[in-house]
């Protein structure tokens, strides 16, 4: 058996393929079946004169029935992919009746039938691009000398804010949560491995219904010893460039299915990303967008969108106010009211895709920040030990992989960037 794409490459002669019925139509004399597999689609023609004994079975085949087909392939510009197979024989492998998904069905209906919607050409294209992106992340970090490292998903301390924690009943113990990030359990490892990365699920109990939020998402994170703040930004930019380049090299057919404008992605490979401080971003927003924000307020989605509309590459915003960022971010030596933290904002209004920082390596400063947040620093003793015994400058970032997929694919909603999305309102199928 050949894949459909390999059959198209062969271009002529006898071929045998298998797949599922994507579309079907016909008359009393001819039956047209568009068959799909994971590689492509192709039109297959059945002439009744050659299948008189089984014509009734053939004529009653419906969408998503699985079958094998052997026949002669030839070029035909009228066919959906430019080639057509004249069938000589076939086998019905699995019947399908009254397939529930048709055109113009609601978003909720498709979500309820996600297990079937994954078969659509749109979702197949997205999932192929997703696979490329995961592979590119591994390749980038391994080429750069990082070790893959894994931290626990059951955790006893919070890193990103207690309001977004999923509490777990852990054999009767209530002070256990699903991981928001690997970070507090990753930092101890850099004192042995120095440069580490991971890709793993993270969980945020955010009561948000926006097109950018999932309660369960895949987190690509890195941490490195002996870094300076610029290293974190440089790795984030290089990683995103590497990902976009890989997708453009590998997935042009899938991007075409999604009708993605490649000219929107190409600048991110060819041009340096825009870098500006939070304070500079406020000035740009005021002067070019007419948006006046009080210093110290975090950027909201609307401000991020307006800022990224001004540029065709991601924007790296740095040096946020200390009051709006996590306790582990390092104070800027020149401006103690800001931190050496950064957010990468994707073009076209796709929002934050990476958040990173140089980590605070001064033990006493971390204690003060925890107390200011109302946290008992004694609960963080294992983490504080990393500052007691040979602390060094270090930093890292976290990248929401589905947000990157959303940007690269040009999706309206992040829920299409993952096979089975989990949100505030959806936990099944």
Tell me what you see in this structure:
This protein is α+β, with helices and mostly antiparallel strands and about 425 residues long. It has two domains: about 5-95, Nucleic acid-binding proteins (OB fold (Dihydrolipoamide Acetyltransferase, E2P), Beta Barrel); about 115-415, Bira Bifunctional Protein, Domain 2 (BirA Bifunctional Protein, domain 2, 2-Layer Sandwich), CATH 3.30.930. The chain is about 30% helix and about 25% strand. It contains 15 helices and 16 strands. Strands 6-10-11-16-15-14-13-12 form an eight-stranded mixed sheet. Strands 1-2-3-5-4 form a five-stranded mixed β-barrel. Strand 8 (about 165-170) and strand 9 form a beta hairpin. Helix 5 (about 120-145) crosses helix 8 (about 230-250). The longest helix has 23 residues, at about 120-145. The two termini are about 35 Å apart. The relative contact order is 0.11.
Number of domains: 2
Q: How are the strands of the largest sheet arranged? A: 6-10-11-16-15-14-13-12
Instruction: Just give the CATH class of the largest domain.
Output: Alpha Beta
Please give the alpha-carbon distance between the first and last residues. 33 Å
Share of helical residues? 25-40%
Instruction: Output the CATH topology of the largest domain.
Output: BirA Bifunctional Protein, domain 2
* Largest beta-sheet details: 8 strands, mixed
**Tally the helices: what do you get?**
15
Into which percentage range does the β-strand content fall? 25-35%
* Gyration radius from CA atoms, angstroms: 26 Å
Average of the residue pLDDT scores: 94
Report the structural category.
alpha+beta
The CATH superfamily label of the largest domain reads: Bira Bifunctional Protein, Domain 2
How many strand elements?
16
């Amino acid at each position: 058996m050949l894949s459909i794409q390999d059959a198209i490459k062969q271009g002529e002669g006898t071929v045998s393929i298998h797949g599922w019925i994507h579309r079907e139509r016909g008359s009393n004399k001819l039956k047209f079946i568009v068959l799909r597999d994971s590689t492509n689609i192709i039109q297959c023609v059945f002439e009744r004169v050659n299948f008189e004994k089984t014509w009734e079975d053939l004529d009653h085949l419906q969408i998503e029935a699985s079958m094998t087909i052997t026949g002669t392939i030839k070029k035909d510009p009228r066919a959906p992919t430019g080639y057509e197979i004249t069938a000589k024989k076939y086998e019905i492998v699995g019947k399908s009746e009254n397939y529930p998904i048709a055109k113009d069905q609601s978003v909720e209906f498709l979500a309820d039938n996600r297990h079937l919607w994954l078969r659509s050409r749109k979702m197949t294209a997205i999932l192929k691009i997703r696979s490329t992106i995961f592979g590119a992340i591994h390749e980038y970090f391994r080429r750069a000398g990082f070790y893959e490292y894994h931290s626990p998903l059951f955790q006893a301390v919070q890193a990103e804010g207690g309001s977004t924690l999923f509490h777990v009943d852990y054999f009767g113990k209530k002070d256990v949560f699903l991981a928001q990030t690997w970070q507090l359990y990753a930092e101890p490892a850099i004192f042995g491995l120095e440069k580490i990365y991971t890709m793993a699920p993270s969980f945020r109990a955010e009561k948000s219904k926006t097109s950018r939020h999932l309660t369960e998402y895949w987190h690509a994170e890195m941490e490195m010893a002996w870094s300076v703040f610029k290293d974190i930004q440089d790795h984030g930019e290089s990683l995103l460039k590497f990902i976009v380049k890989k997708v453009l090299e590998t997935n042009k057919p899938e991007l075409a299915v999604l009708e993605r404008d490649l000219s929107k992605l190409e600048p991110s490979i060819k041009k340096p990303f825009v870098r500006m401080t939070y304070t500079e971003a406020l000035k740009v927003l005021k002067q070019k967008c007419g948006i006046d924000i009080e210093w110290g307020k975090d950027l909201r989605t609307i401000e991020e969108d307006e800022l990224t509309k001004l540029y065709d590459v991601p924007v790296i915003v740095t040096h946020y106010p200390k009051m709006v960022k996590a306790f582990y971010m390092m104070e800027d030596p020149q401006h103690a009211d800001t931190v050496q933290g950064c957010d990468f904002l994707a073009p076209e209004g796709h929002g934050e895709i990476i958040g990173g920082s140089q980590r605070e390596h001064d033990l006493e400063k971390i204690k003060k920040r925890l107390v200011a947040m109302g946290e008992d620093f004694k609960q963080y003793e294992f983490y504080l030990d990393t500052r007691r015994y040979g602390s060094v400058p270090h930093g890292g970032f976290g990248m929401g992989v589905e947000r990157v997929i959303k940007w690269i694919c040009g999706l309206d909603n992040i829920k299409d960037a993952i096979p089975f999305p989990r949100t505030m309102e959806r936990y099944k199928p």
